[in-house]
């Protein structure tokens, strides 16, 4: 147990396969998983005692092989033509890096859902973390995600949507953001039809959550049917003819603001001012920054500092403006221009740390990283020092990610845009 209790972190297992005649072998190697992809020198690399389990595609719920990895590399003989899933049930505390060939063999089990939900979730979670760290290709993740077109499990979709939103923010710094949105629309179109807009008597709790998740994601990706229906539902809700169910309100508010004009924005302000419950006021306020027009983003930033917003809610309204690249640029400028007031209001508290990190972390260039460092060097903020470091680190990781994978992502999206 010392390898788990007396050293920080956890391992990533890299697996490659090879054939020798009629036999097939998997070669395992372990190294410390680092979010930025850096690895310790081999002579000082930490080593874990890793309990490894694997299952075969013909019976994915049955553990076929168990072994203990007690050295940097091991080799295991496996069945010749079976897909192999490492860490079935996601019980082991380690990430798995499959070769592209092994990943390809697992895709049919993902698409048919013969792989259990936890294993489908594990494939997505592990591969995306490895892509972000620069250990795996982002194109491999997009290829994996395509296989989830018939997925119905809410927890699996929570992970995938979170990953795709991270990618959407990253690719907003490119000239092919629209192509990525189109990929998302194709991926979610069938699921959107399946979950629909209206609650059903047979719905469980996760069905309602899935509907809200899917509607919100399709709205972010400019899905025409979702946008049109959102405007209809907002109009009916605002007029009092057909109140929106609470689960869909944030998704509809955000979608209509993203695609709407000043009239929609005024409708949302009316809803804010007429709401009796603070919960509903904040549901509206936290979506106001989704508006795309710079003039409306500017209004939201000023509104966040007005007497209509409670002081403790101000950071959340400000960060609602981070929904677009234009909004992120404007919000960062606004925070700098109003830093003395913001620092005085929130100094020493968690809200300042949250505001700083959210405002800065989604940029993707070395120039921005240096700009953030220079600003906080001139405006020392000890209470948010760790958040500032994390934000700058994330900016540099984003810059490296784009530099490393941007060309390949663009090429893949172009080649697969008609699927």
Topology (elements, then pairings):
Elements: H1 2-5, E1 11-20, E2 23-32, E3 50-56, E4 65-69, E5 73-78, E6 84-86, E7 95-98, H2 100-112, H3 117-132, H4 138-146, H5 154-171, H6 177-195, H7 205-220, H8 224-239, H9 246-259, H10 262-274, H11 278-285, H12 294-304, H13 314-319, H14 325-337, H15 339-346, H16 350-360, H17 366-378, H18 385-415
Parallel strand pairs: 1-7
Antiparallel strand pairs: 1-2, 2-5, 3-4, 3-6
Provide an overview of this structure.
This protein is α+β, with helices and mostly antiparallel strands. Helix content is 57%, strand content 11%. The chain has 18 helices and 7 strands. The protein has helices at 2-5, 100-112, 117-132, 138-146, 154-171, 177-195, 205-220, 224-239, 246-259, 262-274, 278-285, 294-304, 314-319, 325-337, 339-346, 350-360, 366-378, 385-415, and strands at residues 11-20, 23-32, 50-56, 65-69, 73-78, 84-86, 95-98. The strands form 2 sheets. The protein has a 4-stranded mixed sheet. A 3-stranded antiparallel sheet has the order 4-3-6. The model has no long low-confidence stretch (mean pLDDT 94).
């Amino acid at each position: 147990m010392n390898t788990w209790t007396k050293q920080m972190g956890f391992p990533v297992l890299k697996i490659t396969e090879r054939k020798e005649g009629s036999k097939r072998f998997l070669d395992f190697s372990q190294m410390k998983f680092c979010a930025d992809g850096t690895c310790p020198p081999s002579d000082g690399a930490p080593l874990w005692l890793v309990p490894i389990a694997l299952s075969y595609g013909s019976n994915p719920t049955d553990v076929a092989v168990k072994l203990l990895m007690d050295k940097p590399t091991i080799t295991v003989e496996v069945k010749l033509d079976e897909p192999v899933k490492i860490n079935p049930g996601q019980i082991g505390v380690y990430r798995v890096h499959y070769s592209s060939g092994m990943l390809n063999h697992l895709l049919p089990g993902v698409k048919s859902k013969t792989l259990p939900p936890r294993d489908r979730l594990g494939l997505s979670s592990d591969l995306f973390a490895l892509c972000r760290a620069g250990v795996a290709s982002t194109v491999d993740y997009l290829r994996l995600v395509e296989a989830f077109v018939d997925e119905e499990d809410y927890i699996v979709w929570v992970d995938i949507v979170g990953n795709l939103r991270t990618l959407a923010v990253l690719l907003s710094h490119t000239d092919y953001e629209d192509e990525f949105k189109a990929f998302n629309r194709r991926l979610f179109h069938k699921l959107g039809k399946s979950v629909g807009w209206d609650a059903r008597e047979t719905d469980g709790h996760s069905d309602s959550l899935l509907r809200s998740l899917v509607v919100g994601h399709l709205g972010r990706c400019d899905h025409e049917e979702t946008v049109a229906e959102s405007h209809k539902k907002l109009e009916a809700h605002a007029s009092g003819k057909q109140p929106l169910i609470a689960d869909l309100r944030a998704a509809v508010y955000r979608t209509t603001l993203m695609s709407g004009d000043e009239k929609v924005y005024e409708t949302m302000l009316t809803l804010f001012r007429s709401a009796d419950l603070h919960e509903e006021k904040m549901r509206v306020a936290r979506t106001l920054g989704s508006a795309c027009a710079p003039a409306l983003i500017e209004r939201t930033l000023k509104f966040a500092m007005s007497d209509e917003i409670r002081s403790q809610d101000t950071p959340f309204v400000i960060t609602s403006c981070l929904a677009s690249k234009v909004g992120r640029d404007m919000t960062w400028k606004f925070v700098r221009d109003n830093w003395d007031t913001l620092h005085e209001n929130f100094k020493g508290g968690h809200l300042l740390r949250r505001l700083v990190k959210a405002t800065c972390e989604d940029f993707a260039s070395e120039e921005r990283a240096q700009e953030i460092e220079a600003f906080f060097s001139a405006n020392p903020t000890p209470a948010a020092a760790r958040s500032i470091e994390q934000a700058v680190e994330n900016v540099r990781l984003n810059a490296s990610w784009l530099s490393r994978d941007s060309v390949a992502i663009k090429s893949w999206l172009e080649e697969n845009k008609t699927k």
